[in-house]
Amino acid sequence: MPHSSPHAPASPTATRRTVLAGAAAASGAAVLPLAFASPAHADDLLLSTDFSSGTTEGWYVRGAVSLSVNAEGNLLVEGRTATWNGAAIDLTSHIEVGARYQLRVLMRLPSGTEAADLRTTVQRDAAGSTAYESVTWNTAVTPDAWTEFTGTYSITQAADQLQFYVESASSLTPVLVDNFTLTRIEEPEIQDLPPLKDVLECDFPIGCAVEPREVVGKPAELLAKHFAQVTTGNQMKPEAIQPTEGVFDFANADQIVAFAEANGMRVWGHTLLWHNQTPAWWFLDAAGNPLQSTRAHRALLLARFEAHAKAIADHYGDRVWAWDVVNEVVDPEQSDGLRRSRWYEVFGGGAYIGEVFKIARRVLPRKVKLFLNDYNTEFPDKREAVYNLVQDLKRKRVPIDGVGHQAHVDYKRDPQLLGETIDAFKRLRVLQTVTELDVSVSDYMEESLPATPPERLVAQGWYYKELFDVLRERSRDLESVTVWGLYDAVSWLRTWPVPRPHEAPLFFDDRLQAKAAYWGVVDPSQLEPLP
């Protein structure tokens, strides 16, 4: 997810360069013992620093900080006065458009400090504009062990400068840095396999949520081969489209939309209203004070939503065929079944949901479909809460066209649960779609293993087979099925709710190769027997 941070100073060019042969690059974050090992794999190691020279080896200050190399040969970053202050290294001369890279660094806190969330980011400067692109999102770090921050990175357009840096979420703690590597991932050929979109053509369009980095290079080739629809993962969320009131930025979303149109793919919009990834200004008055539950502030919120939706409608029209108008507004643990978000607080209830659907219907082209999207709808309590909300909206003649079932499931969850939910919503005569499908291979949410157990990938393949049997039986009731991510290395599950480097929830692995999950959908006879 992009996030805001001040500009960094200009940097010297990093000088260390090593070229090695090797195999795959991993993604995610993992905690290592204090005596850590070198990376197990490397495709083309372009840049590395381990501070064994006693110097900062090309790293430079970012903001009001002090850099030094301690007696143990680690880079010490201290004196930070803002969360974005840290240490940075220039990558500009090493990064090419369309290529994929692995960025890896170890971080630890000095003894005697409290745990803090740290993250790694690239600042990309191009043609007078600056973007801040997360490589590894907020991850807890302690003084007790080195934590490995690993992620893939690519650019879709040439940049004037690229700076990789370490920062924190909120703490101003000193940070220790070591063993940084920049590796170019050797791209394999895209396999000559039956395209998923052709296999499922008679059932429903198969879609994929992507970021701009997936519409260039080999990932773009994989995407165009297998999928008929795209969702703009993070790039149409409120903070991405309108980070500052009245200032709209469609650049990243436009890259995905242009790619989709060039390849004959439909575009799904995600999302107009969400309690998360929404800029703080949405909920502040002109004086910068939090909005209150007053008639004036409710009117202000709706006016802001209308301005936001109208700008999107003016920009995209019906090029985006459907929108998640509201996302994750249901909480079955509440007496009225609704999430206690800032929208809820200002309106003193859920009246805003119907109002924003009416606004969306007024400003978007008539042919564009309007959806309510939520997770865990396969569970009976959430199913009932969402059903009651949609039933109430329809009773009030709110212009809602359909319901999106996210379907973030795990490989042990009963596939029939989702089928039962689809059957239930047929009674409401609304369109239905699966919007964010992935199948976790964790035995529990906080599980974090160094590698994926092979037998779980086999079990996942059979799970996908059973799940798609359920979905195909209901193909007349589904507008589309979308998976949340193109390949495992870019899955959100690698870093949520804890670092999980073993997570592999998608059809294709880190090297863009088909897994048992793919064969479970395309040809189950190719699957190994269940363990």
UniProtKB/TrEMBL annotation:
Any Pfam family matching the protein: CBM_4_9
Domain GH10 positions: 190-524
SUPFAM superfamilies linked to this entry: (Trans)glycosidases (SSF51445), Galactose-binding domain-like (SSF49785)
UniProt key word DNA damage: no
Recorded superkingdom: Bacteria
Enzyme superclass (EC): hydrolase
InterPro entries: CenC_carb-bd (IPR003305), Galactose-bd-like_sf (IPR008979), GH (IPR017853), GH10 (IPR044846), GH10_dom (IPR001000), TAT_signal (IPR006311)
Transmembrane segments: none
Reactions this protein catalyses: Endohydrolysis of (1->4)-beta-D-xylosidic linkages in xylans
Entry's EC annotation: 3.2.1.8
UniProt feature coiled coil, ranges: none
Cleaved signal peptide residues: 1-42
Keyword set, alphabetical order: Carbohydrate metabolism, Glycosidase, Hydrolase, Polysaccharide degradation, Repeat, Signal
Protein family: Belongs to the glycosyl hydrolase 10 (cellulase F) family.
Name of the protein in question: Beta-xylanase
Organism, scientific name: Glycomyces mayteni
